[in-house]
Amino acid sequence: MIDEELVKNVDLLAKPSDIIASINPEMLHSLDHEYVIRQAQERLKGRSKSELEAGVRYAGQLVESAEGMAQWVGQTKMRQGAEQVFMNDPISFIELFEHFDVHEQDDFPNATPITYFALIAFLYALESLKAYSAPSVQSGANADNSYDHILQEHSERFAGERLTEAREMIAFILGMEFEAVFRRKRAKRANKAKNQDYSELKKRIFEFVDTECDGLSNRKAAIAAASRFETEISGVSRSDDPEHQIAKWIGEHRKGNR
Hints:
Elements: H1 4-8, H2 16-23, H3 31-43, H4 49-79, H5 91-94, H6 113-132, H7 135-139, H8 146-212, H9 218-228, H10 230-236, H11 242-257
């Protein structure tokens, strides 16, 4: 679960170094924590303090649901005789977005899954800093009894796990953003190829109309062209009435040639 009390005492809009110093000055030069915070802030840019506070509440709900799901999956696998599988990673959140409408949150507007992943990574980094600042961790070798030693190990392990999860979340975000760029480029290439096919088809239709349909109306010329180039038209057009579209092309073509 997210430590919302921790977040209330931190200015999420401050410089990464100031945020780190406010929680754990001993970790001021932690490049890992600074990297996560800086990357998260880039994707939360322009958010007001009140919006971030609302986002933290919703992120907490997502984390709680994801951890509950991971626990259920782990228990199920153990009952089946398999080793426990920990799923506290970005993948475990994906299914949750099928039931959580990010667009319904008026007090955290225009959010996307990436926005929530960035916020969760941010919060994980803060929790890691807090765990590293625990007295048992700071005391190190001075922990002289078994209870302090166990507490120290637990704090160190939790801090390291939270930081690892935060970095994995940022890596997942970068992967999603790369995939989005790749899809846009692929769509752009597909549209360019389609437009080229469109232009070539129109050129052939106009040549056909100019040479063989000179005495026909635009509509009748379109019917003739649609019949002649039926295969080509079906390959580039999804219109329910291609003859109507072709008639408009022919009308514009003839008007321009007058």
